[in-house]
Amino acid sequence: MNLWSQNLPEEFQNKEFKINENLISLDASDQKSQEILRSIAEKIVSSISIKVYKKIANTFEYVYGANFLSYVCLEVLTNDILLRSLPVMLNTNNFVDSLQLLTDAIQNQGFSEDLTSLISQRYNYYISIDPAITVDFIHPIQINKCNLSQINAYTLNIPFALKQAYISQYIEVFTKIFYALLSHSSKSDFNQFIEITKESSAIK
């Protein structure tokens, strides 16, 4: 697999970004910085889930004709990958390659571990706050009975156009939140980086 980072211009190869020092002290140890980044990642994932849900969740059934469970599977999958990836995404190469991993998992691979219980919990939560989000309710007990292979088969069978719409929205929301975390000097670099990646197709 050709990594997206290979398409980055030389000036953006392995360029580092810095988190706002109000979030991570400049003299913090590497271990402490990683702990803070993991905590930040959890908050980012929660924020993304809320924003993406508001923007696109109701389109799954009412626009694309796919059961709302499809949305929940994609949310759990992308959030799991981002939680593991974000602590290394302060490097340009790791940033685009992590987004490539996320995109490839949604389009071609699915889950690497069994998160069926979490999918069931998230599905039940969303239905409890907005029953009208689905017209074809699936009982969480049925979801919990599925194994990893069945969940992956279901996830990979989600229409490609729907996956693309979800990925596009997810990455758009994520990059805005990521930008807000950066130091003043890194924000300027990040804006240039995002523009360059779009022009060079480093982010598909």
What is the compact description of this entry?
By secondary structure, this protein is mainly alpha-helical.
What layout of secondary structure does this protein have?
Elements: H1 30-56, H2 59-62, H3 68-85, H4 92-109, H5 116-129, H6 140-144, H7 148-156, H8 160-181, H9 184-200
Q: Which descriptors would you attach to this protein?
A:
0% strand, mainly alpha, globular, 204 residues, 9 helices
How would you sum up this structure, described in words?
This protein has a domain at 39-171. Helix content is 66%, strand content 0%. It has helices spanning 30-56, 59-62, 68-85, 92-109, 116-129, 140-144, 148-156, 160-181, 184-200.
Chain oligomer state: single chain
The best one-word shape is globular
Q: What's the alpha carbon Rg, rounded to whole Å?
A: 18 Å
Distance N to C terminus: 14 Å
Order of helices and strands: HHHHHHHHH
Mean pLDDT: 90
Major β-sheet annotation: none
